[in-house]
Amino acid sequence: MLSQRDQELLRQQEQANQRKKVKYPRSVAFIIGTEFCERFSYYGMKAILTLYLHNELRYSEDDSTVIYHVWSMLCYFTPILGAIIADTFLGRFRTIFYISIVYVLGNAVLSVSAVPPVFPELSTKIGPFEDLVDVCLESCGIFNGGNFHGNPGVIHKGRHRAMAYIYNIYFYAYSSAIFVAGYLAHLYKLMPPQGSVLTDVWCCIWHALGRKIKSKESKEHWLDHAEDKYDKDLISDVKILVKILLLYIPLPFFWALFDQQGSRWTFQATRMDGQIGSWTLKPDQMQVVNPLFILLFIPVFDTFVYPLLARCNLLKRQLPRMFTGGILAGVAFLVSGCLELKLETTFSVALQSGETRVTFINGLPCDIALNVTGQDPEIKIPQLQEHIIKSIMINEANTTFNVTLEFDEHNCGNVRHGLPHYEIVVHEETAHAIMITADSTVIKMVNIEPPDDYMKSDSGLPKLRMLYNLDMVPFNSSVRLKGKFDTYDFFIEDTPQGHTSGTKFMEVEPGSYQVFLPTLEGIREEEAFTSFDVKLGGVYNFLVQKSLINVSDAMTVNVFEVTPSNSVHIMWLIPQYFIITVSEIMFSITGLEFSFTQSPSSMKSVLQAAWLLTVSFGNLIVVIIAEAKFFKSQAMEFFLFAVLMFVDMIIFAALAVSYKYVDELAEAKATSGAVSDKEGIDNKVFSDDETKF
After folding, report:
1. Which of 15, 314, 570, 687 is a plausible cystine mate for 309, CB 3.0–4.6 Å?
2. CA 479 – CA 473 distance, rounded (Å)
3. What is the CATH number of domain 231-346+570-693?
4. In this structure, which CATH number among 3.40.50.620, 1.20.272.10, 2.60.40.1120, 3.60.20.30 belongs to the domain 355-563?
5. What is the model's pTM?
6. pLDDT for the residue 50
C-alpha cells in the first residue's frame, strides 16, 4: 500500500512522462534522405519520359503512353521482389544499398547513351530502355527496403504517436524530391533477415484454400482450415488482412487516372499555348503543379478543411474520404475531356484523298489579283501577304491549274512584266506553297519544294523554314536565326529550283529570333537585319529575297504563317490539376493512413506491398485501354476514364458500407468483456460520435 506522498510522486512522474517529447529514431533521417534522392531521379526521368519517347525516339502518342505506363507498372510491381529479397536474404539495409548501386549504373548508362558520336546505338533505343529497367530494379529496393511499415530497424514499440508525423514528412519527401541526403549508415539499426511475411501470408492462404476444397469439415472462417499448419495468431492477422484487401480491389482505377498526368495530360499540354510574358512554360514542366499543390494543401487540409468538415459531421472516417477522392478524380477527367474538346477545334485537319491545299505567297512590292482555274471569285492578295486555299477537290492524283495574274506595273518597284498565264501542278494530299516573286523585272511563280508541312509538330514546338530568292548570294551560304538560348542556320542549297527555293521545316524553340543575313561573298553579317517571333504550335515560312524596289543589293525578310499557333493557354490545365491533387490528398494519403491504423502490426508491410500493387495494376489498366483504341478522339477516352471511375467508386462504396473499423470491433468486444490485444489497441484516434461510411 503506497503512502499518499508516494502516490502523488507517482502521479507527477506519469504526467512528466506524458509530457516528454517522443523522439524520432535517428534512422528516419537516413530513410527520408534516401527517399529524396531516389524520388528526385525517378520523377526527373518520369517528367520527360513520354515526350522523350515521342519526340526523340519517334514513338506515336499511344505507343509512348503504353511504354510509359508499362514502366510505371513494373516500378510499382518489383518492390514485391524487393520485400522478399530484404526479408529473406539480404536484410533491408543491404537491399537498399546494393540495388542503389544498380540505380547509379542505370543513370550512368543513360548519360553515356546521350553521346551519339560515341555510342550511336545506345543513343536511340538500347540506352534509355536499359536505364528504365534499372530504375524498375531500384524501385524493388527502395520502396520495400525503406518502408516504415513494421520495420523494426526504424520504428520501435511505443512510438506510434510519432508515426503520423513521420508519414507527413515521408509524403513531403515523396512529393518534392529536392533534398539530397548523405550516406549515414551508422544511424541505421541493421536487422538480420527474418523471413518474408509475404510468403507466409501467401502460403497460409493457399493452404487454407486447398484444405477447404478437399475437406468436408465446416469452419467458422475458411482461413481456419490452415490451423493444422499455421499458428492462430498468423491466421487471425490474415483474416483482418483479407478483409482490408477486399477494399483494395477497386483502388487501381484511381491510379489509372492519376498517373496519366505524365502521359495523356502531358501530350494535352503540347497542344496549348505556354507563353507567359517573356517566359514559355513547357508541357513537361506542368507536372510540377501536382507536387507543388500537395505541399501547399496538406497543411491546409489538416488544419482547416478536415476540422471544418468534422464540425458538419462529414468525412470524419477514412473510407468516405477515399470515396470522395475517387469521385474527384473522375471529375478531373471530365474537366480534361471538356478542355480536349476545345483543343480539337484548333487542330489542323489532314488532307484526304482527292484533296489538295494551295498557299499563294505574294513576295512582290505591290498588290496582285489572281484568277485560278475552278476558283471563283478573283483572289486579291496585298503586297507581302499570303492567301491560303485550305481545300481544293481534284479529280486526279496530279492536276494542272492555269493561273492569270494582274498587277499595276507602274507601282510595283522594279517589276514591269508578267506572263499571260502560269501553270502550277498540284498533287492530292499535298499542301503547296506557291511563291510569287521576280527575276529582275519579270514576275515568276514557283511551286516550292518541299511542300508545306502544315500539320503542327508532335512536340508542340514551332516549325519553321526559309523560302528564298537570292540569285546574287553563293550556294551554301546561310541565314542565321539567333534566339535567347538557341541558334539555327538555314542554308541556301543548290537544288533543281536554283536560287528560288525553300529549305526543309525545322522544329525550333518558341521565342524571338534575330536574323543575320549573308553578304554577296557568303559571309554572314555581324549585325542583325531584323527579328521576328514564333509561338508554340505555329508553323511558319520566312521569306528572304533580294529587294524588288531598287537596284541595290539589299534584301528583305518577311514572315508568313502556315498554321496558327496554339490559342488555348496552358493555364487552363490548372483546374484539372487542382482537382486531381485534392483527390490525391483525400484518396492516397488517407488510404495509407487507413491501411496502417486498421492492420495488425505483423501485416503492415504486406499492406504496403498490396498498396503498391494497386498502383501497378492501375498503370496496366491504362495500357489495356490505350492499346484497345476505343476512340479516335482523346476527349472521348478521357470521358471513358471518368465514367469508369464513377462506376468503380460505386463498387468501392458498396464494399465499404459493411466494413467495421477496428475501434468498433474493440468497443463491441469490450462490451462483451473480451477485449483483444491484437485488434484496436493501437488505434485510439477515433471518437464514439464519428459517423460510418
Report:
1. 314
2. 11
3. 1.20.1250.20
4. 2.60.40.1120
5. 0.77
6. 85
| Helix (H), strand (E) at residue 381 | strand 379-381
The fold of 24-191 is: Growth Hormone; Chain: A; (1.20.1250)
DSSP 8-state code for residue 122: I
486 Cβ contact list (under 8 Å, min separation 6): 508, 509
In this structure, the dihedral spanned by the alpha carbons of residues 349, 351, 352 and 358, taken in order and rounded to 10 degrees, is 140
Q: Within its chain, how far is the Cα of 397 from the centroid?
A: 42
Examine the pLDDT at 134 and tell me if it is beyond 70.
Answer: no
DSSP assignments along 555-596, one per residue: EEEEEEEEEPPP-SBGGGGHHHHHHHHHHHIIIIIHHHHHHH
What type of residue is 223? L
**Cell numbers that stand for 237 in this block:** 492477422
Dihedral pair phi/psi, residue 385, rounded to 5°:
-125, 175
Give every CB contact of residue 138 below 8 A, 6+ residues apart in sequence: 38, 42, 99, 100, 102, 103, 106
Which run of H or of E encompasses 494? none
Rounded to whole angstroms, how far apart are CA atoms 637 and 341?
A: 11
Evaluated on CA atoms 335, 337, 342, 343, the torsion sign reads positive
24-191 matches 231-346+570-693 in fold: yes
Residue 480 φ then ψ, to 5°:
-105, 135
Instruction: In whole angstroms, give the CA distance from residue 330 to residue 338.
Output: 13
Inform me whether the pLDDT recorded for 267 exceeds 80. yes
Of 342, 292, 408, 262, whose CA–CA distance to 569 is shortest? 342
Which residue pairs from 53-56 have beta carbons closer than 8 angstroms and sit at least 24 positions apart in sequence?
A: 53/128, 54/267, 54/458, 54/459, 55/458, 55/459
Answer whether residue 691 shows pLDDT above 60: no
Whether residue 218 has pLDDT greater than 70: yes
Q: What is the pLDDT of residue 146?
A: 43
Domain ranges of the chain: 24-191, 231-346+570-693, 355-563
Per-residue pLDDT tens over the stretch 24-67: 566 667 667 777 777 777 777 778 888 888 887 778 888 889 88
At 584, the amino acid letter reads: E
Tell me the pLDDT band of 677, cut-offs 50, 70 and 90. very low
CB contact at 8 A, 473 and 520: yes
Percent of the chain clearing pLDDT 70 (strictly above): 77
Please state, in angstroms and rounded to a whole number, the distance separating the CA atoms of residues 67 and 132: 10
Instruction: For the sheet with 478-482, list strands across it.
Output: 487-491, 478-482, 511-516, 530-534
Q: How far apart are the C-alpha atoms of 566 and 570, rounded to whole Å?
A: 9
H/E element, 664: helix 662-671
Q: How far is CA 219 from CA 211, 541, 562, 590, in A?
A: 11, 80, 76, 35
pLDDT tens per residue across span 299-316: 999 899 999 999 999 998
